[in-house]
Amino acid sequence: MVKDDVGKVNKLLAKGADLRGVGICGWNVLMLALAARKRKAFRALLDAGVDTTHRDEDGATVLHIAARIEDAWYMQTLLEYPVDVNAIDPSSGATPLVAARGNYEQFQMLLAAGADPNIPDLSGGTALHHAAELARYQQVLDLLNAGADPNRADESGRTFQGYLHRPDPLDQGTEMRTKRAQITAWLRDHGIPIEQVPEHIARARAAGARHRAVGHVGDGAGGWTPAFTIDSSEFDDFIEFGKAIESALNELQQHNIPAKVVQRRYPAGDPIFSLPSWEEYRSR
């Protein structure tokens, strides 16, 4: 266990403590300090010259780990020292920039530190593909402005635009639709052809189909009855949409009500559109 006591850490270092030691998951002492959220020890170890290029048993560096956690302090601190912002995780090909796709603050820090947005992972996808796939539209704009190649295709032959269409804009909130419009404007301003909407989405739009999460409650005997809906277009972030689904399921579980959620596109006129929303259902 790494103690968050700079004095003790420095005493151990003065006695010749081995900074090359490796523990669980192949983590070195710096990774252990990060995992334990020991800020003082973390900085003391960096000051002592601990190896920031060390890789755990999965091939990740401490920068990859710092990119994935919610506390941005560790990334900010690492970037004060000599680190490789383009280190590649050999198990996936991901750079810290790709690893930070779920944490915008770390993502911004890495871009500002000169992270290369065009390094492909093992599937040929770059940070731009990943941001588009996860509907991280502000990240898409940031990457384009930082020099990401909008014409680069992954191994499936798709550019990042191919992933922009995975969620239908009509299933998204106002802010996300505005961001998508800004991406389209950026492409036009830079002479990049706008790719056609995939046929299956065009058909779904024409049919008035909409994406919904439908909550089903169980009868205890294997039967399930549709009970409520959660509308994805009420959320400006897919993460928040997912959290709303999880919250509903947790609340039902607390009341010992068997429940599951089915997500898909439903055509106009489907009976599910007459179901109450989750908020209406839970207030009954």
UniProtKB/TrEMBL annotation:
ANK repeats: 58-90, 123-155
Lineage: superkingdom: Bacteria
Compositionally biased residues, Basic and acidic residues: 165-175
Lineage: Bacteria, Bacillati, Actinomycetota, Actinomycetes, Mycobacteriales
Name this protein carries in UniProt: Ankyrin repeat domain-containing protein
Keywords: ANK repeat
Annotated spans, Disordered: 154-175
Keyword rRNA-binding: no
InterPro entries assigned to the protein according to its UniProt record, in alphabetical order: Ankyrin_rpt (IPR002110)
